Amino acid sequence: MKIVSSILLLSLTACASGPHTVGMVVPATTKLVAEKPLRPFHEAAAMSVDQFLNVYVVETSGNVVIKVSPTGDSLHAVSGFGSDHYQFNGPSGVDARITNAVFISDRFNHRIEQYTKDLAYSGTLYTRENIDPATRFGYPAAVAADEAGNIYVADGENKRVVKARSDYSVDRVIGGYSDAVRPDAILSNPISLAIGRDQHLIVLDNGGTSLVEFDNLGNLLARTQLGEDARSISASNDSIFVLMNSEPNVRLFLGTGLVELGGWRLVRTNNADSSPVQDLCVRNGAVYLLTREALYVCHLERLEVPSQ
To answer: What's the CA gap between 158 and 186, in Å, rounded?
Structure first.
């Protein structure tokens, strides 16, 4: 298994040669190479990596969440269609960032299910029947948790983010519409979430065409237009990794202020599958890539740029 060191990863994210205009596409300087799959999957959709480099993968076809070891072995799984606590109806995202608690967004059950690191059920965030509209969410598209155990939900029904405390009580709404909210702080279609440095919330908005940064109180810090569609985001150290639907395949941003740093161009060898790329996670110097059919541990190589 090829894992790039944290030092190399940080050096590659800091490859910018000077300040850049927000929203400007910086040319890719590095190849992200996917070779032999770590493990095959069927209709995989999302993943998250814990601090020990175990990978939690969502397979939508069977309503399955699987925990995979760093060597590709299956450790635990939750599967089955339904609304019980070991079943799902359209799992859309998973977050294992804080390791001891794993959160899964269960789209058509309108809830966030919390499990232990061994995928034992421990609780549910569900507000669908609350009287107060400010606390309700439906069709969650993604979930993220910060180090304090606060839970952030991409509310697919109301096009905003709902923040809940670790006891599942709703703390606030982020990016919702009101006359008091500045226009550029209003979210329109959040589809992916990440927690950056200083516990800032990073949102992939507008169906994947905007990147937005909030502090943990929901105050807008930065917004940048990507100019093209992105699929998901991941945070590591002070960098945000944006998985694009087109070249360059990954764009890198500074976690504070969302200044663009550079890009990675995805290269798949003959041993890799050709199914659509679904998700990317960067953790402790390791880069994981998920396609619809397989999970990869990738390595980085400098991209040869022709001299002018």
So the answer is: 11
Query: Closest Cα to residue 186, out of 220, 216, 156, 162?
Result: 220
> How far is it, in rounded angstroms, from Cα 80 to Cα 36?
29
* Side-chain half-sphere CA neighbours of 124 within 13 A: 13
Which tens digit of pLDDT belongs to each residue from 149-203? 999 999 999 999 999 999 999 999 999 988 678 899 999 999 999 999 889 999 9
| Tens-place pLDDT, residues 17-50 | 333 334 455 666 799 999 999 999 999 999 999 9
Q: Tell me the pLDDT tens digit for each residue of 63-113.
A: 999 999 999 999 999 999 999 999 999 999 999 999 899 999 999 999 999
Residues with Cβ within 8 Å of residue 97, at least 6 apart in sequence: 48, 50, 144, 145, 195
CB–CB of 47/92 below 8 Å? no
C-alpha span between 38 and 101 (Å, rounded): 24
For 262: left if phi > 0, alpha if psi spans -120 to 50, otherwise beta; the answer is left
| Tokens at 288, concatenated | 């994981």
Classify each residue of 44-79 as buried b or exposed e, where b means 16 or more C-beta atoms within 10 Å of its C-beta.
bbbbbbbeebbbbbbbbeebbbbbbebeeeeebbbe
Please answer whether residues 135 and 141 qualify as being in contact, where contact means their C-beta atoms are separated by less than 8 angstroms. no
C-alpha closest to that of 55 among 282, 300, 293, 299: 282
CB atoms within 10 A of CB 128: 13
Please tell me the pTM assigned to this model: 0.90
Query: Cβ(78)–Cβ(64) under 8 Å?
Result: yes
- Whether residue 147 contacts residue 131, with contact meaning beta carbons closer than 8 Å, is answered with no
